[in-house]
Amino acid sequence: MQTPADPQDRHEYPSHWEADVVLRDGGTARIRPITVDDADRLVSFYEQVSDESKYYRFFAPYPRLSAKDVHRFTHHDFVDRVGLAATIGGEFIATVRYDRIGPDGTPASAPADEAEVAFLVQDAHQGRGVASALLEHIAAVARERGIRRFAAEVLPANSKMIKVFTDAGYTQQRSFEDGVVRLEFDLEPTDRSLAVQRAREQRAEARSVRRLLAPGSVAVIGVGRAPGGVGRSVLGNLRDAGFTGRLHAVNQAFPDDLKEIDGVPAHRSVRDIDGPVDLAVVAVPAEHVPEVVTECGEHGVQGLVVLAAGYAESGPDGRERQRALVRRARTYGMRIIGPNAFGIINTADDVRLNASLAPEMPRPGRIGLFAQSGAIGIALLSRLHRRGGGVTGTTGVSTFVSSGNRADVSGNDVLQYWYDDPETDVVLMYLESIGNPRKFTRLARRTGTAKPLVVVQGAGAPPGHAVRATRLPHATVSALLRQAGVIRVDTITELVDAGLLLARQPLPAGPRVAILGNSESLGLLTYDRCLAEGLRPARPLDLTTRATAGDFHRALAQALADESCDAVVVTAIPTIGEGAVGDAELAEALRSAAEEVPGKPVLVVHVELGGLAEALSAAGRTAPQAGTSAPGTGGGAHLPPLSASLERGDPHRPAERLPTAVPAKLPVSHPYSRLIPAYPAAERAVRALAEAVKYGQWRREAADPGKVPGYDDIDERGAARLIGALLERGEGLTIGVEETCRLLGRYGIDVHRALPAPTPDAAVGAARALGYPVALKATAPHLRHRADLGGVRLDLADEEQLRRAYDELSELYGTPEELRPVVQRMAPRGVDTVVRAVIDPAAGAVVSFGLAGAASQLLGDMAHRLVPVTDRDATSLVRSIRTAPLLFGWRGSAPVDTPALEELLLRVSRLVDDHPEVVAVTLEPVVVARQGVSVLGATVRLAPPPVRDDLGPRTLPAY
Q1: What is the per-residue DSSP string for 275-289?
Q2: Which of 33, 172, 340, 803 is the most buried (most CB within 10 A)?
Q3: How many helices (H) and strands (E) does the chain have?
Q4: How far apart are CA 821 and CA 754, in angstroms?
Q5: pLDDT the model gives residue 206
Q6: How far from 791 is each of 67, 233, 525, 807, 927, CA to CA, in Å?
Q7: Of 708, 689, 707, which Cα lies nearest the Cα of 697?
Q8: pTM to 2 decimals?
Q9: pLDDT tens for residues 64-82?
Q10: Phi, then psi, of 736 in degrees rounded to 5
Q11: Rounded to whole angstroms, how far apart are CA atoms 545 and 519?
């Protein structure tokens, strides 16, 4: 195919096509357009491609590129001829190009919408998913340039390339002619292509994190010769944790004759290390980091943990330094934890990695922990590690990541890893900011269907965090996270409390709670807290202070066997005197009873006295023996080690765990090995249980999320034409009343017309046109939607009443020019509500609902759902506000037509989902009557749609 030899002058260089991507094996590459300056790189790249790959590309032996070929493959107009390259270290590893063609297969320009596409991947990088990533990006470029269909000719023996096309998920056709397979496929994304893209994204990002958390070799760069210092401390932590891989100490100031430091091989540079280095912990000052990154990249290091501060958290200069750090690392295909990071930990026996500033290795367990803040990370690790208020055995930490400024690896990446990590059952995250809320919500929803995700979110982003601006209040973002299955808590104490419950207890099947114990007052306090948290507690069973361990055992076993019970809270106070039950005996009684019915969660609330913590901790330091007798049967009991004792005097200490009795032959993962969490206060136990109940309900509902209904009367194309015509007037505008009614009418939303009434005669004419009875309203900004101020007159049955009302409003509030009166046909009486939709640049499209007036404006009683809203979402949305009883017959009033209201919400959701140019919709008031709804006021704002990176090709955040 011949291409013009003139310079590429049709479009300027499209820098927005540049992107960093994570490849299948977890490494990164940069994708960018090919330009005239790439001739030497292209020739060098082609020389490293095997003869077989060249044959597959050109269908004939093609040992070298001619000058004409080089010109053709580097000169593009970025419209009809486009070439992209994947690069590592600035050198090409793969290329792709398309050429627009007409119906006869010859070169063409728009409006032709088909193009031929061809790839070439260096043999050393085949199998890394490079071609799949390039296909996503070249398809996005083609769609932007008006190309809707790709055609590719492939030799039948080139099975790898055929698989790239067939696995992409696009709608395609295949034919075979003259010994060549011809593939044609539409570029419009499909549900399958999007699913394929996201599955590849998950695998690639998970592997990139796995390479950091499970390295075969680690180099600590910046190890001082004298004890102390950050580098020396990290090296000691790695060594003391028993890291199973190869460990190296690096410092350019080491003397030439220094071979070891603390028993670890010493080197002056990473380049001097014989063999690969998978992870480098960078503990040098910020001004020396660029040099270190270059050395690591040239040596083939896969990832970096940058502990140094002095980056974006320090101001504009530091922010630019951080950008340069990320760009340099990505040039070599490396990923970064940090900068300003606390480090990473992996407790797996075959890894034993403590590449952090934590002086002790946490106990291994099933909790994945992520903290952006180093200080919070220290606090959480300390709480989860200390015996006096931490976790032992199988409820410790699986992996820990403190991302610092999260310039590269973020909570989203780590969530991708934990999603299918078999060593992690519960995810705890402390997030000071969410860089990509739309993606986080999607990942959280998917993760939540497999394992609990508990999150504490700070109210504001600290310096150093790149965060997209959001117009939504913090409470709204929290509500949207809950909708996605996130267990949203307010403090790190609640984070640990909920996490420990979820780590080793089954999810409750409902909100019904049994309460039993030896303290009537503590039982009543627990009962009150259950009511406050929306649970359904039964009256507490008081076993009295004379209760024995056997009494606890029988009462708990009976409660668990009761079908009307979903969870049990045991309250216990220590007793003294003759016959008092011992702490160890009580612990064994509860464990053995819970073992008999393992499908329901059990929590313990106990009040400690002096010495109780020590007694609980020391009560059982021998492993349980098979055949242990239940309390009260006369058999001896050997107790397993207790998980932790309570910290006396600290109201914020995390919950301890009391292990249940485990038969000796059962594996740790067996359900009988569940540990019983114990809490020092009723409110903490009940709050954790309430979160588990809500999460369990979400899990059950997530199995059947509902559907987005279709409506035959929706005119999507007509709405698109109207929107396009309106946007030609400007970049962003609030459209007029008539256009608003026309647009909403395309989606079956009827707005009651409001006719202007600048004079009494005009008001009478409007009323005749609409038909009596009518309403007269002042629409001035200070009176709009303020019926309490008297700017509305309702049920005006004739001309006399209308003129009298007009005069009254003029006398009370000013001239018609000040009032801006309108006349509107009366709607049936009902409940006034408000429906809104907004396209938030961070969270995406959101539909909100509440009652009009003080409930929503003063009390903020609004509920929110992400678009697209399903029928189940609409049903729950209407019922989620605190004032919802007003819709369902509160105090004898007539219930209103909530199905019609739900349909209205679904239609608004469809409008903003189908047309991202509709950036804001407000329907107020919406009167919900006994039969039907009436939309009395509506405003719509249009603007060019915001960029949606979640629907485009896979990319890392730009720097």
Answers
A1: S---EEEE-S-GGGH
A2: 340
A3: 27, 40
A4: 9
A5: 96
A6: 80, 72, 50, 12, 18
A7: 689
A8: 0.82
A9: 999 999 999 999 999 999 9
A10: -70, 175
A11: 7
